[in-house]
């Protein structure tokens, strides 16, 4: 700020300094107003505000910061990719605890199967790098058979994907078809049904489906007693048209897909009363809402899948079902939940599988090409409760234990980069004002020294 002087009559022509501080205050006030004008798009400076963007208000009690517009299909692809670990296995949801060998938990092939089926349903298999996953799946093969995990051996539920998923990923040469067929055939019991593994197990319709479908794929159905298997399935097909999972139990629509497919595998389709089975299923369907009467994605998938297998898709309003399914896709990260009122902590990869399976069966995949806003790109993270559990039960862990020695994540500082342009503008505007303030401070010090010297001269010092 330039010096301003006037001649004071009391002091003759001696220059008298005018206090520059009011002018400095005015200049700083002007600077502050200019900065606010330049930064009017910055939210209020609270901790939560720094996590938000103007286009992404809080949803479901969460605050997000990276809102963007994509398509529903691309949001699903991003979600699936986020669940793939660098070691090839998949997590079941965004805060799924990692495998921890000291605790006896190992990665299983099941989420890999869900991920593969999801991308297969929406025709996006080539969007994911499968190399590490193929290596992980290869590590689960022992003597030509698929183990559930590195710590759990094969079962009737692993033999079918060994002949399907592994073949799709180019690993068929590592699978011994005869070994899988022999293992499954040995699981048949005297009543014609199948157990899941040789030791301590019970017969069920679901286990029988996985066994017989494995033998169908392997072209080894003749290796079991088909007459006994047919009697078992007939016994599970009740008079109301539904199917029970175990002998003597009431019908449950959840097992209808397995029952219908078993009737086809065993050549019993002609014995089915399709109209009766359809009526049985429809009593649990709400055509106004486009879902089952309970509004549950799993139940909806089971009923709609059964009607599709019966070639009775015209009995439900598919467009209403599509809209209901799409309502379960959350804007938070593009994930799916199991029912409309479910919170974000209820998202699961398997729900995406159910949803995309239904859209694929009923020719509704075109709905996935519509625009869809995502609040934040999905990223897998370790839940805090699991970290607390590991610290409490296991203390310090090492990388050999299955997780890195430092598993905590640094706080997200990306908001600093978002504020950088505004900070630069503010700095450029404020530099002249700061320079003037510092210069005037130096001059005030100089004036005080000058006054001291004058007083000394008057006193003759």
In short:
The protein has 461 residues and is mainly alpha-helical.
Could you characterize what this model shows?
It is built from 15 helices and eight strands. The chain has helices spanning 21-38, 72-82, 110-121, 131-139, 156-168, 177-185, 205-217, 226-236, 256-265, 274-282, 297-309, 318-326, 349-361, 384-393, 414-458, and strands spanning 5-7, 15-17, 68-71, 141-142, 145-146, 285-286, 291-292, 371-374. Strand 6 (285-286) and strand 7 (291-292) form a beta hairpin.
Q: Keyphrases for this structure?
A:
461 residues; mainly alpha; two-stranded antiparallel ribbon; 5% strand; disordered N terminus
Spell out the helices and strands N to C.
EEHEHHHEEHHHHHHEEHHHEHH
Largest sheet: 2 strands, antiparallel
Give the averaged pLDDT, no decimals. Answer: 84
Total of helices: 15
Question: What portion of residues belong to β-strands?
Answer: under 5%
Distance between the termini: 34 Å
Strand order of the largest sheet: 1-2
- Quantity of strands, as a count: 8
In helices, the fraction of residues equals 40-55%
Shape annotation: elongated
Helices and strands in order:
Layout: E1 5-7, E2 15-17, H1 21-38, E3 68-71, H2 72-82, H3 110-121, H4 131-139, E4 141-142, E5 145-146, H5 156-168, H6 177-185, H7 205-217, H8 226-236, H9 256-265, H10 274-282, E6 285-286, E7 291-292, H11 297-309, H12 318-326, H13 349-361, E8 371-374, H14 384-393, H15 414-458
Antiparallel strand pairs: 1-2, 3-8, 4-5, 6-7
